[in-house]
Design a protein that fits this description.
about 100 residues, mainly alpha, three-stranded antiparallel β-sheet, 3 helices, about 10% strand
Length: about 100
């Protein structure tokens, strides 16, 4: 699968003409892969909860999606506005609460 187009500053990816915040490039690959896996699991759980019309399970799964996206640097304080320690704490906290 090809990498998505990035803006010249590397802060955003462009998919179908829409700009999305890029994942923090300083997250170690093993941690980033684990966070992506947890994100995908949470997204699958959102779908299952919606199909089952389970409002509480959907809310919980969406909360995990949000937490994973924050940990990846795709939501919350922009990763380029954080120092190295803040960035490490952000993704480590995500792993701690999601794993």
């Amino acid at each position: 699968m090809a990498e998505p187009e990035r803006t010249p500053d590397g802060r955003f990816v462009v998919v179908d003409g829409r700009r999305w915040r890029a994942t923090d490039p300083d997250i170690p690959e093993d941690a980033a892969a684990r966070l992506r896996s947890l994100l995908m699991r949470a997204r699958r759980d959102v779908g299952a909860a919606r199909r089952g019309r389970d409002v509480d399970a959907e809310r919980e799964a969406r909360s995990r999606v949000h937490a994973a996206k924050i940990a990846l640097g795709e939501r919350g304080t922009p990763w380029w506005d954080q120092d190295a320690e803040q960035r490490r704490q952000r993704w480590q906290h995500g792993l701690d609460v999601l794993d």
